[in-house]
Amino acid sequence: MRLSAFGVKAFLLAAAAAVSLAGCTQGAKSTVKPPAPTPPKFDPTFVEPEPVSNGVVLKLDPAAGAKVENRLRGEIEVASVPGRVSIPKEATGKSTLSMDYTITVAKKDASSVVLSFDSTPLTLEGKAKAEGIKPGGQKGKVSFDHRSALLEDPDNLFEGLFGAGMIAFPESPIAPGSTWSSQSSRNMPPFGEVKISETFTYRGIKERNGVKVHQIDSSATGTIEDMRVNATYYIREDGLPYEATMTSVATAPIGADAQKRPLWARFTVKVDIGPKP
Fold first, then answer.
1. Which of 35, 65, 234, 245 has the most beta carbons within 10 angstroms of its beta carbon?
2. Does the structure show a pLDDT above 60 at 11?
């Protein structure tokens, strides 16, 4: 395997894992059945918060045809693991990704919201730059229920990236300090089955650049070694994402050497989304 290709593989795997772990797959599949159900890739257990009198009920309820212009920026650092057979030094280092994208409410009915995504080309800089990415922008559609829970899993990395910043809301009314959690098991190649524990805390209504938003903090751990994910989400009043910051760290094997020994790497991934300037 050429080292440049190895670096790209590590970069993309890290990005995919980071987005998944940071909440775009949300740890909670919708309880609303899609028209054509498919076998779930993970089986979450969602623990509702204690209901609060006169609390806030979060809903994904944007106007049909509404559009949101977002910008995504990410930084992935791939490092060797001291004391272990690790990826080649030439494959370590930092890479960045960036893209702008438009979220459009393509369809809305009593049980679901379909969001379409249309992006500029994904730009890679750093270790992954030499190998490149398929040219051109990306498009996709993802279906949610009105709790902002997925009706189907994203089909690819780009749909996962588009969904960054969206999390499943509890059904119960909440107030600042309310917490809820989920336990899930996800198949995440090349790591295999990964068990995830996530906790969410509602911080109340804030103001970001003159826009009223709901702030939700989250943390997660999992069975990938040393895995930790911390994120803050700022959700618009209509349930669409306004801003989000996510940081993930994990240690995992990526590939094997000529002796078939696992090659270990440590990933630190930061993802930020926000309104396009």
1. 234
2. no
